[in-house]
Amino acid sequence: MNKVIRCKNTNNKKIVVLLISQVVCGVMPVLLLAAFVLLKLYETKITAVVAIGLIFLCNVGYMLLARRYNVLNSGRRGERDLYKTVRHLGGNNIIFCNLPVRYKRGRSELDMLIISHKGLIIVEVKNHSGTIQGSWKADKWEQRKYYRGGKNTSQEMDNPIKQMRRQRDIVKSILNAAGEDVWIDTVLYFSSSNAKLKLNLRESDYVCLGSKELLHFLECYDRNVVVSRVQMEKYARILNEARANI
Asked: Which pLDDT belongs to residue 169?
């Protein structure tokens, strides 16, 4: 049976704060408009301008908060999908969820780290939809969405391959500092069924689209090495101790 260690997700608190802030920014224009009419703020030029300015700022703030909330909430849904998928993984693995890691100036949070008898795998989940285009060496990838009527939108995202490379270097440095030389692989998981990938990758860049593909990759993963249970527990203990000091 798998041993799951669920760490605190720092985004949960941010999501709650963003949701409350959205409600405040959504209610304030209504209250200000009511005060504008009932208190006859329009009779004085200064109060009228201030009231209208505040209403405008609240509306802008609401849109910005909503955008950030949607991004974080989408990421959280992807992490939940990842957890549900990996729950079906057989074996006696040690699985970290939302593992914070830091070594010197390098700092990150892993969506998932799987310590198995076959090795260590970092899983990064992206809940992006639309067409994802990019290269392993580019700093940015493009996410393009197409809508009815020919409309489409485009936005950039940080290259997750480079992000996982930094995460792998941090984890490897933590284990090396404790006297452990470990090979670590990474896999990028797109959880949305509405994603289409057009990526220029190397043979060593593992990318999975959908839960079935990810589960198949994890079940078939094999680097022809065997990690003992003692070593697995040792790696987990080192990372747990490092997490406690962050």
From this structure: 95
Q: Is the pLDDT of residue 185 over 90?
A: yes
For residues 207 and 193, give the distance between their C-alpha atoms in angstroms, rounded to a whole number: 14
Complete edge-to-edge strand list for the sheet that includes strand 195-200: 152-158, 140-146, 130-135, 195-200
Instruction: Point out which residues pair with 120 in neighbouring strands.
Output: 115, 184
Where does the chain show beta strands of DSSP type E?
A: 3-6, 94-103, 106-116, 119-126, 130-135, 140-146, 152-158, 184-190, 195-200, 206-209
CA 127 centroid distance within chain: 8
Evaluate whether 170 touches 186 at the Cβ level (below 8 Å).
no
What is the C-alpha separation between 103 and 18, in angstroms, rounded?
A: 30
pTM strictly above 0.70:
yes
Q: Which helix (H) or strand (E) holds 7?
A: none
CB 66 within 8 A of CB 74: no
Q: How far apart are the first and last CA of the chain?
A: 29
d(CA 28, CA 26): 6
For residue range 191-225, what is the model confidence (pLDDT) as tens digits? Answer: 998 899 999 999 999 999 999 999 999 999 988 88
